[in-house]
Write a structure and sequence with these properties.
The protein is built from 5 helices and 6 strands; from the N terminus they run ββαββββαααα. By secondary structure, the protein is α+β, with helices and mostly antiparallel strands. The termini are far apart.
Length: 183
């Protein structure tokens, strides 16, 4: 049971089930028909017209930003602000362009793990290796991309503080043993 058609801005509608009147606002995005990809030109190119490098039966609509060949809409892809051919897009993906990145190593997690590992009762002896490693990782990867989603440097700072504290405690223990040997 449909109500009366709404104007482009919206209006009041009664619920068909309970009869309560509701105020409805139609947003422009709901009314507008989504625009699809550009239509492919199926007409063959006329004599003297530029043709697509990869598909000579199609008209060239642009040039690839990377290799410069003339391409049709069928072989074009938008890559940021650039128009590239599908071959160059594949080349960018194979050469690990940073815009294709789908995962990253979370160095902050690794540094924090190295700093926390000696606090377990099983691996306490590994502090000699893990403390300097956590300090090194925290400093070396301080400006590295952290994650695909926004993330703070809190874990790196924690790893740095814990690692430096562990190094300080080891040095204090060594100096205490060195200068105050037990009799």
């Amino acid at each position: 049971m449909a109500g009366p058609p709404l104007s482009s801005g919206g209006g009041s509608l009664a619920c068909p089930r309970c009869g309560r009147v509701n105020e409805v606002t139609l947003l422009p995005a709901l009314i507008k028909v989504p625009k699809g990809p550009p239509p492919l030109d199926l007409d063959p190119p006329a004599e003297g017209e530029a043709v697509c490098f990869y598909s000579p039966a199609r008209r060239a609509t642009g040039a690839c930003s990377h290799c410069g060949v003339l391409i049709s809409n069928a072989w074009a892809a938008q890559w940021g602000n650039e128009t590239v051919c599908l071959k160059c897009l594949e080349h960018l993906r194979d050469n690990r362009d940073e815009r294709f990145q789908s995962k990253r190593t979370l160095w902050d997690n690794i540094a924090l793990f190295a700093a926390v590992l000696p606090f377990t009762f099983i691996f306490w002896f590994i502090v000699v290796i893990s403390a300097p490693a956590s300090v090194f990782l925290a400093i070396w990867h301080w400006n590295s991309p952290r994650s695909m989603v926004p993330r703070s440097r809190l874990r790196l700072a924690l790893a740095l503080i814990l690692g430096l504290t562990q190094i300080g405690a080891m040095m204090f223990g060594i100096l205490k043993i060195w200068f105050h040997p037990s009799a």
